[in-house]
Amino acid sequence: MAGTITGSRVGTRPYLLLVTTMLLWGSGFSSSKVIVDHLPHSVVAVLRFGGGALTLLVALRLSRRDGEGGGRRRSSPQDWARAAGAGVLGVFVYNLLFFWGLSLAPAIDGSTIVPVMSPVLTTAFLLVTRQDKASAARVAGLACGAAGAAIFFVGSGGAAGGGQVRLAGDLLFLLSAGCWAGFTLLGRRVLAGIEPLRATTYATVSGAVLLAIYSAPAAVEVAWHDVPAYVWLNVVFVALGPTAVANLLYYRGVQAVGPASASIMMFLVPVVGTACSALLLDESFGAVQAVGAAVLSVGAVLAVTQGRIPKRRRAVTS
């Protein structure tokens, strides 16, 4: 939709989109774990984002037919290259690390590490590059977050439900969180000359193509006729909801409120993800992990917000 959004609508609509995104992402952890228990992690990644890419291509085609975005300039090869490059990091590398981690560690760990560490790493990068101010609250929050992460990983290594294997999975989740932080930071540049639907589609398609090439050898070895029907239902869900719809809404949110404010909303994901993992998969934290998760979350919120919610913009072109 072309035009300028002003007044109260700016203060509510982008955040409603981001809340929906976080609900979808949170539920996607447990759903993805169900799939990864039956298929190789690289194959799961391509099923999720291959399906998401196809859905976004259809949506992009329909938007052209309806004349959406007619007031915008045509995207250039540079626009496409920026979006595709973001997809390499935020779709291809992120998902290889994430689903590999998910094959080793419980979904409940990923639903805490990825959404909590992503905004922490985003904030740390902004401070190191002097794109944001290093206030006392932010420094204290980052220190608290680092301590919480250390406690969490110590708890992972000693957990009864996996030990060193679980720890390895959690470290892969941490690396994937770094990829997502980079993807968030790239969002503003990617969206500089291209509407969110087109940018999201280009990024997802480029990442999905690389995932398909990478996962081809493993896909050949899968006994597809033995995959249960409920696994396919989860594949459809994660491809449509937490991938196609959620990524589009996230890019719209980043465009409207910026990467820092969008990152704050990530703190809803652990709540949803933990609830889904506990209720649907009967997963849980050990005592040390629970303490680490609490300390990490407090530090992350302090580091990102500095004890206050960022000011809303008065006008956003969308």
UniProtKB/TrEMBL annotation:
It comes from Nonomuraea polychroma. It is a multi-pass membrane protein. Pfam families: EamA. InterPro entries: AA-Vitamin_Transporters (IPR050638), EamA_dom (IPR000620), EmrE-like (IPR037185). The lineage of its organism: Bacteria, Bacillati, Actinomycetota, Actinomycetes, Streptosporangiales. Its main location: membrane. The keyword Protein biosynthesis does not apply. It is found in: Membrane. Belongs to the EamA transporter family. Residues 15-153, 168-304 form the EamA domain. GO terms for cellular component: membrane. The keyword NADP does not apply. The chain crosses the membrane at residues 15-36, 42-62, 83-102, 108-128, 140-161, 167-187, 199-217, 229-250, 262-281, 287-305. This is Drug/metabolite transporter (DMT)-like permease. Keywords: Membrane, Transmembrane, Transmembrane helix.
